[in-house]
User: Fold this.
Amino acid sequence: MAWLPVDALESGMTLASDLKGPDGNMLLPKGIVLTESHIASLRRRGVVQADVGSGQDEAMASAANLDPALIEASAQYVVRRFAANDVEHPAVAAVYEAAVLRQARELAAGAPLLPDIFPSPRAESMTDMFFREEGSVKDIVTSEVKLASFPDIYFKIRQILDAPTSSPSQVADVVSKDTSLSAKLLKLVNSPFYGLPQRIDSISRAVMVIGGQEISTLVLGISAMNAFKDIPPELINMRTFWEHSVAVGVYARLLGAAAGQGGAERLFVAGILHDIGRLVLFKKMPHAAVEAIYYAKANGLPLYAAEEEVMGFSHPLVGGLLLRAWKFPDALVSCVACHHKPASCAGNVEPAILHVADFMAVGMGISPPASFVAPILDAPAWERLGVAPERLGELAKAGLAQVEEIVSAFFPVRKS
Assistant:
């Protein structure tokens, strides 16, 4: 345990035990990553210290309790994910070590090593609606926009927020009319993602606590998850796809807090949306999309690099064009379009955060379907965050529970 005075706490630290106030009431749960607003609230409530533990000490203790043979088997299995990266790089090494420990714990619990999963052989016979020689990337996106308009609830909320006179109750009224969306929002708000000390039981209360702008951003991301429902199952497991997307969103939010950045909801939604271009490719160019998956596996490449080889472009470009056509905020468009090449969006740290978050998610084994190799970590992007490498293992572990809870809330497993 490592108890620090409140004035010594920093954004991005993780609570090692439940934090209670002077009156004995629970304020923040174990495992939550502290933000500046959390720390300011603790000062106001008269809290004098908090247990932030030592992530490195915990990892060493955990490794000591595991069978060395399991760790070795896990290392041989996990290292394949880092084939395109230099595992001597401090940030890469930190995520690699956290991933090996996670895999070793799963083996110790009796979980088998998962085999590589490819699209169904039937997918190879699918005919692309567009070919590179016949249509441009913009043609593909324009066709998709015409066929599937984005749910308009987000734009209704934006209209309210952009009006000279608006109130949180107006936002709550619009969201509350969509019962499915309301249920998912409340589950998210009450999850460890926020770590609120009291349960939020209404959308109006959520808007008051989280904020109208923030709720509208969350509505944007959650609604996007419903915009693609007709992808052939031979091509992709949608639950796995969104699990990876949620993981990137969670890690982006944690990294943003650790880097002292605001815009937590925007970073989370950027994570949810970062691979949406892949869904367009699966719909419009299924044969080429499958070919890129096999090419990536055969050559030990990240999927975006294989897409560029096979199609001449990759999913971040498609995703950025789609979001721009849907009139999404420019900050989200840039994040999605630049998440594999953050230097192409100079002056904005958020694409760099999203890039590192994507690397962490794949490295930890929360990968998009049929994607095996973690993206090449962009060293300048990593350095822009200003986060110590040893923090990554702690953040990687803290994010896992949040991902599992959010995914189970959004995609409950149906009992047969």
